[in-house]
Amino acid sequence: MSNTNNEISPIELERRSYRKKQVIKSTLISIISLIVLVVVIIILLKTSAGWETVKKSFFNQEYFLSSLPVVFKGLLINIKILCIVLVGVIILAPTLAIIRTSKAPVLFPLRIFALVFTTIMRGTPILVLLYLIGFGVPGLHIFKSTQAITLGSIALILAYSAFVSEVIRSGIESIHPSQIQAARSLGLSARKTMALIILPQAIRKIIPALMNDFISLQKDVGLVSVLGIIDAVRSAQIEVAHSFNFTPYVVAAFLFILFSLPFIALSDWYNKKIQNREINQGGEL
Amino acid sequence: MAEKHLLEIKNLKKSYAEKTILDDLSFNIDFHEVVTVIGASGSGKSTLLKCINLLEQIDDGEIYLQGEDIVDPSINKDKVRSEIGVVFQAYNLFPHLTVLDNVTLGLRHIKKIKKSEADITGKKLLSKIGLEEFADSYPDRLSGGQQQRVAIIRAIATNPKLLLLDEITSALDPKLVKDVLGLVSDLKNDGVTVLMSTHEMSFAKNVSNKVIFLHNGKIKEQGTPEEIFDHPKTQELKEFLTNE
Fold it and tell me: Which of B86, B93, B96 sits opposite A185 (nearest CB)?
């Protein structure tokens, strides 16, 4: 069978219609299963004995609207702390990572320090760290006055720098040694090799992981409420204490989620972009 | 001392742990010469080139580049390396930089030439190998042979005194090998001094001024291409040539 013109052969037409049917079939299946799932959850909730009580104390529209501005004001404090922590982590984490990956004998004591630091900080629950720094440091009476926001930020910077530095370190170590050799053989110094060749490639590889850490940090800033800072969580807590209704907590959760959505979308978009780039490359080479 | 030779190597020794890799090598490279090192895998060819580029520390011996002792521990290694261009077997280009930025990296960050000027030089070099249209592409858009040619012009962009080529065609398929070797011949005509290791025997015969045969870390024979390929003296070289 041969067709010299642009006409599509009957067998290909058959294949295409088969594929189309398959797509329709699988789309239908997924839509139906989603609807079934949602209906089951709704029925389970509605028929549970305590649903009416839970609905009243957690999803009360009146309390939702009344506490929204107060909790939102608190969220601004969280955002402020997030910015401070971000700056701190951006400075401290790469420094730790570079110390950990360096091989210079002079840096040996620093390397040991960085190892101990990252081990302790990654092992300690952030809540405990917040208590230790938030209540322990003022007890030392070294500084005249220390704001809770500053101390809370420091605790988060220490904890997250340890995590992020390990991510960066893994990125640095994932760069093939031949890249370093190629750079050094051009006559680039060790420092320039790090700055121009290794770090840019490493950062590119770890951006998805870093974005994930950022989203995680975004909600962990809510933990500073234990130091008495009137952030979103604390504001919600105060509202709850007034009304004995838990809806403000849901408001806080709602605001935190809302705030994280753009970053989650950004992270998804970037991952997709990288994936596409790699697929395209694979096709071309 | 009169600078008779561009590169002078005397009694070079190198071993890893207990294994001797380079055993008492001595040879010279004159200006504008192409010298080829041949020998079986593991005969020490790559290690020799890495020692000259100071990527490996030698155990004993002397290396002079234009009369300057480059294995003196107090020497500025980065400066020496910038005077010796190197192209390895693979993974030479930096994937996060465009082809043009790869070529101009040394000009900008070692020779401290302004970006605008370096770009002009870089594009001129790229057009020499017919790849100027890829200036703004990333290396992964190029074939292996194109990548190696870019790596070669990147190595010569800063006008190094000596160019080291370490089996630059062994990761390529035969069709691409031709292009890369053609560029090396062009460089010879331009007067670039080259020390290369290769498995391309007919190419080595055509392009070299001098051939060195390494066997188990020792120089078994060295001489003109005719002496090495047409009149091998030692049994080892005869066997090596029949096997290649």
Answer: B86
Rounded to a whole number, what is the distance in Å from the CA of B39 to chain A's nearest CA?
23
Of chain A, the percentage scoring pLDDT greater than 90 comes to 69
Answer yes or no: is pLDDT of B195 > 70: yes
The complex's ipTM works out to 0.84
The CATH T-level fold of domain A67-256 is: MetI-like fold (1.10.3720)
Range ranked top by mean pLDDT from A5-9, A150-154, B168-172, B182-186: A150-154
Taking CA–CA distances from B78, the nearest residue in chain A reads A187
The pLDDT of residue A81 is above 90: yes
A277 contact B CB<8A: no
CATH number, domain containing residue B129: 3.40.50.300
Number of domains in chain B: 1
pTM exceeds cut of 0.80: no
B2: in domain: no
- Flag if A178 and B109 touch (Cβ within 8 Å): no
- Domain boundaries along the sequence of chain A: 11-40, 67-256
To the nearest whole Å, the CA of B234 is away from the closest chain A CA by: 35
Pairwise CB contact (< 8 Å): A182 & B92: yes
Question: What DSSP designation does A8 have?
Answer: P
Measure the CA–CA gap between A217 and B244, rounded to whole angstroms. Answer: 61
Nearest chain A residue (CA) to B105: A186
Distances (CA, A) of A165 to A94, A160, B243: 6, 8, 52
Tell whether B190 is covered by a domain: yes
Domain with B23, as residue range(s), is 7-243
Rounded mean pLDDT, B20-47: 92
Q: What is the amino acid identity at position B89? A: Q
From B70's Cα to the closest Cα of chain A, the distance in A is 14
The pLDDT of B203-223, averaged and rounded, is: 92
Contact map slice: A 138-177 vs B, CB within 8 A: 176
Q: Is residue B1 part of a domain?
A: no
CA distance A204 to chain B (A): 9
Chain B residues whose beta carbon lies within 8 Å of the beta carbon of residue A179: 91, 94
